[in-house]
Amino acid sequence: MNILIALTYYRPHTSGLTIYAERMARGLAARGHQVTVLTSQYDKTLPRLEQLDGVQVVRAPVLLRVSKGVIMPTFGLLATRLARWADVLSLHLPQFDAAGLAARGRLFRKPVALTFHCDLQLPTGLFNRVVNQVVDAANSVAGAFADAIVSYTTDYASHSTFLMRFQDKICVIPPPVEMDLPEPASLAAFRARWNTDGQRIIGMAARLATEKGVEVLLNALPRVLQEHPNTRVLYAGQYQNVLGEEEYARRLQPLLDQHRERWTFLGLLNPREIATFFSVCDTLVVPSLNSTESFGLVQVEAMLCGTPSIASNLPGVRVPPLSTGMGQVVPIGDSAALAQAINQILADRPRYVRPRAEIEAMYSTPHTAKLYEDLFNELLAKKKQGESNVKPAP
């Protein structure tokens, strides 16, 4: 099967969406399919055509950026060529260009499956409000043309303002999660490098972005330190020069300065380092503020390393700790409640730990790839059946 996967940002860009798409693409390629990813050349140093882990990556040059979006003049030509080649189109939202791609799928009679990762909510401001509305309109057009729309969870699908418009097209597929356990030597080296011995470690893994709720954890720290004075935060992920988040970083700086002795930025970590990071943490926190977060893959990754998670009470985001029992859920933006949950887990951590096998049974890349393959085959069969039922004109 020829599968076209399209999204605005792909690897090496790091976000939950790009990691999901990369794992999905690799998983489908491993099952013997020809997979091409159409994305943006958001960094001019990236090649326009590249083979990564059995997946062909095609990058359209970027003329300019609009907030977190990009304008790509040659994207339409590439989309037309690849849509003709593909047997099925897999489009990942939010994505401004998804409407045009979905329209090409309808024009060329190719099945179109959308994967809806989250609602788009840019920072406040008139311009961003306009961008939100434009992208929402494009997503709605794509949804109208789509044959199926994938959601991570039933919880998120039943609350998303976008997904509720297309309930008859919803298919729930759990996200692909991968996480190897670190070697003891890696753990020892990590602890020595970051001087974590004798400390309780709160972990956070995310881009430094408005929707991640970093300030909620910063404001919770004083209450945590009252009960556990040897506590420290390790923050994994991009924290400098995050696209569209410069003002947010400036706004956080006074709080970060206040807690500089208890807060360490680790930067971007490779897969081996991130496994070590999760294993060192006593708990992971996901204090996200809005529906731009729909699940939080890092929660399951941490759980696979034996680390409980504390999540905001957001649709989808609350699913991992609730479904596994490996963590707690707290009210959105409530620093006091977050501090209380952290203190409870630090005081009785074994109570929240579950066997790795239980988590693996729920989430894996091969399982997700197989479910996508089944969905694509079902859509192809329906498309062929529909065409065979069309009577020729007299």
Sequence-ordered SSE layout with sheet pairings:
Blueprint: E1 2-6, H1 16-30, E2 34-41, E3 49-52, E4 55-61, E5 64-66, E6 69-71, H2 75-85, E7 88-93, H3 98-107, E8 112-116, H4 126-145, E9 148-151, H5 154-157, E10 170-172, H6 184-194, E11 200-205, H7 214-227, E12 231-236, H8 246-258, E13 263-267, H9 271-280, E14 283-286, H10 297-304, E15 309-312, H11 319-324, E16 327-330, H12 335-347, H13 356-360, H14 365-388
Parallel strand pairs: 1-2, 1-7, 2-4, 7-8, 8-9, 9-10, 11-12, 11-14, 12-13, 14-15, 15-16
Antiparallel strand pairs: 3-4, 5-6
Helix pairs in contact: 1-14, 2-3, 3-4, 6-9, 7-12
Low-confidence region ranges: 390-394
Strand order of the largest sheet: 3-4-2-1-7-8-9-10
**Percentage of β-strand residues:** 15-25%
The largest sheet, given as strand count, sense and whether it forms a barrel, is: 8 strands, mixed
Q: How much helical structure, as a percent, in the residues?
A: 40-55%
Distance between the first and last residues' Cα: 34 Å
Structural class: alpha/beta
Descriptive tags:
14 helices, 20% strand, globular, 8-stranded mixed sheet, disordered C terminus, 394 residues, alpha/beta, 6-stranded parallel sheet
